[in-house]
Each structure stands twice: as C-alpha cells, then as structure tokens.
Write a structure and sequence with these properties.
By secondary structure, the protein is an all-alpha fold. The chain has a domain of about 30 residues. It has two helices and no strands.
C-alpha cells in the first residue's frame, strides 16, 4: 500500500482573529438603537397628531366616503 502525503490546504491563508475587547458593545448598541427608535416615534407622533395632518386625513376619508359609484 502506498501512502499519499497530506495535501496542503487550498485557498487564501486565514487571518488571525483580533482579540475580543468589546464584551459590552452589543448592550450599548441596543441601548442607542432603542433611544433612537423612541426619539423617532416621538417625532412621528408629533407630526401625525398635528392639526394639518389630522385635517388632511379627515378630508381624505370624507371624500372617499362621499364618492358615488
């Protein structure tokens, strides 16, 4: 029986991983994302609950309901 030598791995060499120094990073990212989402929701609520938007939506619904087919 003949023994074949082990083949060298094919492909680019793998890069070593950097040391993990960001243990708390995901918690901070979630906190910033939550604060940003809450701020966006507050701005959106202020815009939608404004008089001009409510008036425009009311007119749109009234026009849609008064349309004859």
């Amino acid at each position: 029986m003949s023994r074949l030598p082990h083949a060298a791995p094919v492909g680019p060499p793998t890069m070593p991983r950097p040391p993990a120094r960001d243990e708390g990073m995901s918690t901070v990212e979630y906190a910033i994302g939550t604060v940003a989402a809450a701020a966006f929701a507050a701005v959106l609520y202020a815009v939608v609950s404004g008089d001009s938007v409510v008036t425009a939506l009311t007119e749109l619904v009234q026009r849609a309901l008064s349309t004859t087919f």
